[in-house]
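We treat protein structure as text, and this decision shapes the records that our systems exchange. The remainder of this section carries one protein's record, kept here as part of the documentation:
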Amino acid sequence: MNLRQRDIVETNFLLPNGEMKPHFAIVVSNNELIEEEGIIYLVLISSKEYHPEYCFEITNDMITSLTLSKKSCVKCHIITSTLDRFIFTKVGAVKKKYFDDIVDKIISSIF
């Protein structure tokens, strides 16, 4: 699968409680890392707003191709790495101007 930074994918995501569950996620790895190393870093999208201080609300006007059926947020403190073989499908992408805001929130949430 040809993945790029800002893509929205569906994959099993290891949740903080240890459970694996399919979720949408945003590819945050830069394209060179994906191409050269095959490593894909993802940030979770969820409809649950636990720890709202680490959430970034995402709406349908911020993304392409995908329509979110519930109010959703990017969980900026829940990031994982995976390989493309563990990604089920690519479903859309985050528009560039919103992706930059998400990255800023990830940085402030983690560092």
Q: What stands out?
A: Helices lie at 31-37, 96-110.
